[in-house]
Records
---
Amino acid sequence: MVVKPGSELLPTARPIQLIDENGDRATRPRSGGHTLPPADALLAAYRALVVGRRFDQQASSLVKQGRLAVYPSSHGQEASEVGAVLALRPTDWLFPTYRDSVALVTRGIDPVEVLTLLRGDWHCGYDPAAHRTAPQCTPLATQAPHAVGVGYAARAKGEDTVVLAFLGDGATSEGDFHEALNFAAVFRAPVVFFVQNNQYAISVPLDRQTAAPSLAHKAVGYGVPGVGVDGNDVAAVLAVVGRAAERARAGEGPTLIEAHTYRIEAHTNADDATRYRADGEVAAWLRRDPVERLTAHLRRTGALDDAGIAAVADEAERHAADLRDRLPAQTPPDPAELFAHVYAAPTPQLREQAARLAAEEN
Amino acid sequence: MTALSMAQAINTALADALDEDDRVVVFGEDVGALGGVFRVTEGLTARFGESRCFDTPLAESGIVGMAVGMAMNGLRPVVEMQFDAFAYPAFEQIAGHVAKMRNRTRGAITLPMVIRIPYAGGIGGVEHHCDSSEAYYAHTPGLTVAAPATAADAYSMLREAVELPDPVIFLEPKRLYWSRQEVAPRARTRPFGEAAVRRAGRDATLIAYGPSVPVALEAAEAAAAEGRDLEVVDLRTIVPFDDATVTASVMKTGRAVVVAEAQGFAGVASEIAARVGERCFHALEAPVRRVTGLDIPYPPPKLEHHHLPNVDRVLDAVAALQWEDA
């Protein structure tokens, strides 16, 4: 038996970066041979980052005001979520987790519908088929095999759809992560596995999650390319996901991407991050902020000026105000709907229970 | 009409479904070249090609999870779990997603898929090859749970399962794989949710499903020799549950015994006994009895006959239905 070399599947020594912490262009070897996306793509990403961050702040405020039950913040991870989504076509599929609300907003889903889950009105507020975006998944990594199946079916039907599955660092310890990567590799399914390594699974740090040199290194075990990327550099995320998507679309199979980023907030409003991490660590990551970095870069290249910044800030503010205005108008479904979607046709037992509940309501 | 074994009937149902609907795909462990460890998928890859019936890596959660995605995107996957107890790695996918996707998305995403599980014991199999796992699935809202007892039903019910817009747990009683019955080509029996009265009787009702139906029928024959006329109801689907047929039978006979091979505590047999008690209390001449497996992990092959419900135990339960008061 001849063991094939796998070195071409290994990630680069350091995560790929195209714009550094100061807003300057990164060069080889940090760029990993990727070229900087064009100015219009970076401006679109800038807009999505600012709108996404404002949405995230607004959602966190709504929790404090008691208008949302819970909100797992994307703060600090916006470049990963925005870059990954903007690298996809509208016909591609997205499999988000509970932390990826900014990705959903970037995808064009109504923020009110994004927050339906977290208001406690229903388990998913948007139409996944219409948006080609699965419901936000709560049990870790369980959405990854679904992504493989959607990709497999697309290829069986002769479509060039690509599927991107978001995962967190904690999810890479789950069996479904392994099974999905293995299935995708064996069937050459057009899937991009995008791990946001934000350093913590609630309170458990990465070194308790894995002894691997990096999460991207896990790919080689499946015969899949593993790529590490600076998850706070939206330009690098756009480029790396873009290449992985092209590869998948061309029938060359899946890619595992590890985006190195950081969860600035606690796991959710119900969590206390001071119990397991030091303030200094957060401060260090704040200096690598994805929005400030891109702003500095675009200013330096002349693509963005004060007026441009103000215009995008205004737009983000309008979206936030619109969300505040419209959220209260959303009302939970009629309790009768509890029985409506369990089966295509309710069982006789469900019809009896629906009648009893209706009688209680009257 | 041809006499088919239940395994052949299921094979024919899969072939006809593959033939009639391009969206149907069959996959699992050893289902391709080998034709499955019970040969249920024999010849399907040769006839329909590797794209329609294929082997996967050995990972049940991956198999069911991939099927979820395929169903989300327009296919109709029919997957095989090699054995009942080998399906447990897939349980999170089944309970967490398969059962809930329609409800979660308010009907926007439906999962037309079938999970076939060779199930239950009585074949001298080892510990992890003989579980009666129906209660786990029946307890999970959103799943349809089917357990045929005849070859004709196996064909008809599998065709219906593949056509249904919702996920179906299709429990194939292993010990009935080789039982034969005349099955007319492409013949449908009756729809899900309708139990079948396999034997009409006046004195007591035996309620069974899957592998326990032949036991109940044999017990009814033996009881007839002793002058007791037993009715046998074959549930066919545990979910949906046919309260109407069961209730009508027990209201008529006034006595009921539930026969199920699974361990009894907190099981499907207990649910049935409770439902009959709630609906038929004033017509009952005696408490509803259960004849089930023992509350033990599945026994080794040489001891399994102690565990499985048999004719004598059913007759004992029938004898205990307070006939002296009649």
Note: The mean pLDDT of chain B is 97.
---
Amino acid sequence: MADEKDYTGQTPAWCPGCGNFSLLATLKKTLAAMDIPPHELIVVSGIGQAAKLPHYLRCNAFNGLHGRALPVATGISMVNPDMKLLVTTGDGDCYGEGGNHFLHAMRRNVNMALFVHNNQIYGLTKGQASPTSRQGMKSKTQPFGSLSSQFNPLSMAISQDCGFVARGFIGDREHLQHLMTEAINHRGFSLVDIFQPCVSFNKVNTFKWYKERVYHLEEEHDAGDRMKAFQRSLEWGEKIPVGIFYRHDNNRVLTDDLPPLKNGPLPLQDFDPQETTQILEEFY
Amino acid sequence: MDYSIRIAGEAGQGLQTIGAALGKIFSRLGYHVFTHQDYMSRVRGGHNYYQIRLSEKAISASRDVIHILVALNIESIDMHRLSLHSDGIILYEPQNDEEEEDEQFLATAFTQIAKDAGGNKIMANVVAVGAILGLFGFDLQVAEEIIKESLAKKSGEIIEGNLKAMQAGSDYVRKNCRKLDRFQTVEAEQDNLMLINGVQAIGAGAVMSGVRFYAAYPMTPSTGIMVYLAGKAVDFGIIVEQAEDEISAINMALGASYAGIRAMTGTSGGGFALMTEGVSLAGITETPIVIAEMQRPGPATGLPTRTEQSDLDFVIHGGHGEFPRVVLTPGTPEQAFYAANKAFDLAEKYQIPVFIQADQYLGDTEWTYRDFDLSDLSYKDYRLRHKDLAELKDYKRYAVSSDGISPMAVPGESRHLVVVDSDEHDEDGHIIEDAETRIRMFDKRLHAKMERLRKEISPPVLYGERTAPEIILVCFGSTYGVIREAVDILGKDYSLAMLHFSEVYPFPALNEFDYADYLRKARSTVCIENNATGQFNRLLRAEMGIACSSRINRYDGRPFTLESLVEEIRQRL
């Protein structure tokens, strides 16, 4: 088994007490326990506090543009499906700016794990409403309260038949490690939405707020039952469930049966221009 | 011998089938062919045409005057008869037993002949092909070969029907056409020329340069590149993905490039508007990418199926911040083929975005060539992989070097980690904000590379009068062919040359060819562009401090054609 220290990267620039610290620690523990060598791992991110995570981990990293982590990860996965691929992102990055890509990455069933640090607020830009903010939440840019309804990522994912849909909470690291492990092991696209309070800007959805509400889905919960899973994903209020809502591996993974990958990942295949010279023949 | 044929009718009537077949037949017979298409943004109806010019000499433009009009509907006659040469002929599908007005008209019941001879009215297109070949008195043997090839998967009965329909079309005009000797032909100097359009040339050039991943969102007139590459996916191991939008397309291509292969995307102006943040990302992360930008008239949706050169400023400047890029503007399918190769080579060598900028006109026009010289292609793998990478003690993705180029490793191939970042970063790829590192990165990424890149850019081509021309026609991109032919015509009366730029950014230096000296010494310089404001003229002035003495701009969405361009140039001389 690898050591957590093997995954130590740069010193985080997050606010003291930020929920991201626990998330990062849990991720390192997960990777060490799974014995994934840093060089076989690629972590892709966009922009936001969550998107800085790849720098704080030792791994291959592509820290791209706001909302665009999923297309980058899709491109990587399509040419080299052998790499372990993670995307770390936030609720604004993934569900707001990158919402369209979120939808289509699920449809493609890209083989990767998506960890969304969900704090129901924009942190990096200092406290505006995010897609997962409660409707009516007031902020400097939403003086009359957020007018839009709250986005439900789990219901969305289940509705699209995403093969692995889970929710975790950084206040329960052991459980979160279990979810991360299962998500990384899942073949295909896996979503883990992770409650992670923002200590600087979200004064409503605090650590205490989550702690009081979060409970585990029962052991009897049948994660193979899509309708049940959908129903449970709608629970929101005094009690909010965490755990694996829905999982199955019935769907074709994007890179399954892709003819150019028959001979292995594309970066390992040599190219010889001499073997292409016949392509001009069809023009005669 | 120099004849032009125009097939006109509604979308969906098969004029493309007829045009494509004729181009293939003439080029296999050894004639030089030039084709262009004019079509509306609709799948059925409207009015479209396909024009084919053939000659025993090399040609590079469409003419205004046509010799044969195939009118698939009656409206086509009114729309095009003014373009008809005095000795020309209109073959038309009769509707109400109209009287033929004179020997310029020949009612040809394509559909009825198809039914009678081939057994199916769908073969009317082949009847039209036969009729045109009959007008020239061409033997049908080569045409038969081509029909058999294109219908190889069909039953023997269908093939036989088509061959009979073509023969019947030829027989009909041979029997009924008055003045059958009006189209004299000359024997071609060779047989079997290659017929290729700009889109196919870019695609073929990309395949031969090792493209492995192409992501795009369909958009006219760039879609043809995607279609071409998708057709090569199995044979050449290329992954083609249709993205949900152009933002995704360029980011997918950058992800694939980062993973260690040659990647490309393509679009038109509207799609490129969405890609610009990705171009900037390629800039700061130093991720190689080739982008084909096939222009069509804007703004916004503009004229979706037509042509313009109005994205030059946009492609040179699109993307926030400052970073190096290269913009290639080929003028012919042959130049486009080599431009694709050069684009990949420069993108990989300098780790930058490289553009192949063309337009609907170059994309769709077909030209003939004997062959492309494949020994002019280059391929070198600039990536750090396998043993070379594994043996390194330390690896830093953005290690500072005097030439500005840091080693680009493939992630996963060794214990070394590859970290890239859209933030300003240090040599390891991690976020920084200090001024000193920022300047070091700029000096490496931008200044050092730009200095070397300038030396990679080919100078413009001077065609026509080479010693001190009094008049210089200045141009870039797809206007090459028509201006070249204009020079051939006007060169008889004037001391005149064309100066064509096929690589425009960085702007070509003067050390290899001091074209600025020619421009300064010329009595008259005319900048000819397919746009309204003279973007290239502005670029020339900004880069060289030279302003052309006059401009010709066409911005109606149509390409320049030979006779009308020659007339416009004469007016300015």
Note: Chain B is about 40% helix and 20% strand.
